[in-house]
């Protein structure tokens, strides 16, 4: 099932993709879902980020498959950087290379503390695509991931939440720049699994519904420049497109 | 002027300390303030954190006065950790020493990007006390300040916002444990000034009204243990008290 968040004259509205339209729902986190009866045709829907997270976490040291990864290490990204599908990434100028980083994002569905490998996925509402845009050269002087991660619209998120991804550990990820595939990988190339990330994070911080965990870029970091169009394609979810200005 | 946020049967309510009572206001960020006509007597007011920030930033490398400080380095703390005056800090167990860290917190009043030394303070609504509770031993394996900063109620904030602090660069800070002063210092001992912090942060990240910048602990980190009562006293603002469980 796909859950989107769309712009309406009365404010943001969550909705489910049903019978060729976005069927409005009251609250994506309640079970069972309650439909309002309203709907928006696909062609008329302006997609917003599918959630408005209070907490956005990145996972450090989860980049490319290797036998001896460093211990997992989470970090916070500003919720102000979350951007809608189609929004312009404003590349910070004169601050080194700007990377697009294609990742699988986990959207938390239920309050989650001290998760185990057995119950972690039960606390997930679903999955979406994220572009963890980064001024990568700042890393040398920015051990806490603030300077390189704080630009305007540096966290495109969407286009929607897929609640029934067959296997989050086996999701292909492709990064396209101006229509050309520049990176092809998937969560199967992450040294720590998606479940590992959730167990680690919730061993320290209680997550709440709507929080987002970006699970790491398995060789999916690609330099971009103003004028580029960048697509993050996650298998089983869809395509998150942005332009760079 | 003091601005608090208090609990009422209809939800959180901002209010101004006026004529011995908390006079309710519509929005602490608008000018001039609009009074609703309602009020709550001091004795009946349950204080909440004075804002509900989307972004809470700490400032690394701003600890004790020295001539050659490392460059400023900000980091995000989870908004979920923000706690009200009087709430219990839940000390994470078996994870090393828990420090209380008494700091001056800046509450942003207007959207702030690329601030200068000249205009930085014009974007500030006011100041409050913050306790940046930390599992300090995690620092050795937690370069991004996630593990040591994520416990339940690890960011007591309050008791209210003081909008007219005479000089934020000269505010005394005292940390008391069980009524005994354990650290006495002030923002005058920070190697980088409060204004420096705002200029640095907004050179990278656009801040929004209600965001909070914790300006650093100038020798005001004190170990605490379950059962302790800890007070953060900032001169010109007031006392932020918490218990440790």
Automatic annotation (TrEMBL), chains A, B:
<keyword id="KW-0479">Metal-binding</keyword>
<protein>
    <submittedName>
        <fullName>Fumarylacetoacetate hydrolase</fullName>
    </submittedName>
</protein>
<dbReference type="GO" id="GO:0046872">
    <property type="term" value="F:metal ion binding"/>
</dbReference>
<feature type="domain" description="Fumarylacetoacetase-like C-terminal">
    <location>
        <begin position="67"/>
        <end position="244"/>
    </location>
</feature>
<dbReference type="InterPro" id="IPR036663">
    <property type="entry name" value="Fumarylacetoacetase_C_sf"/>
</dbReference>
<keyword id="KW-0378">Hydrolase</keyword>
<dbReference type="Pfam" id="PF01557">
    <property type="entry name" value="FAA_hydrolase"/>
</dbReference>
<dbReference type="InterPro" id="IPR011234">
    <property type="entry name" value="Fumarylacetoacetase-like_C"/>
</dbReference>
<dbReference type="GO" id="GO:0018773">
    <property type="term" value="F:acetylpyruvate hydrolase activity"/>
</dbReference>
């Amino acid at each position: 099932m796909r859950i989107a968040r769309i712009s309406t004259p009365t404010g943001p509205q969550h909705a489910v993709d049903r019978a060729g339209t976005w069927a409005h729902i009251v609250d994506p986190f309640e079970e069972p879902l309650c439909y309002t009866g309203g709907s928006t045709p696909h062609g008329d829907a302006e997609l917003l980020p599918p959630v408005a997270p209070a907490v956005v976490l990145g996972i450090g040291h989860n980049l490319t498959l290797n036998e001896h990864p460093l211990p997992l290490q989470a970090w916070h990204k500003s919720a102000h950087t979350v951007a809608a599908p189609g929004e312009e990434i404003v590349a910070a100028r004169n601050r080194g290379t700007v990377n697009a980083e294609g990742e699988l994002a986990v959207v938390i569905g239920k309050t989650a503390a001290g998760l185990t490998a057995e119950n972690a996925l039960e606390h997930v509402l679903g999955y979406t695509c994220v572009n963890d845009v980064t001024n990568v050269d700042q890393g040398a002087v920015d051990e806490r991931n603030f300077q390189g991660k704080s630009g305007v619209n540096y966290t495109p998120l969407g286009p929607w939440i897929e609640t029934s991804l067959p296997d989050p550990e086996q999701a292909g990820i492709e990064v396209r720049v101006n229509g050309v595939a520049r990176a092809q990988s998937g969560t199967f190339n992450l040294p720590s699994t998606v479940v590992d990330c959730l167990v680690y994070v919730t061993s320290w911080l209680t997550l709440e519904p709507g929080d987002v965990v970006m699970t790491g870029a398995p060789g999916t970091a690609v330099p971009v420049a103003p004028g580029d169009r960048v697509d993050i394609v996650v298998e089983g979810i869809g395509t998150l497109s942005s332009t760079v200005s």
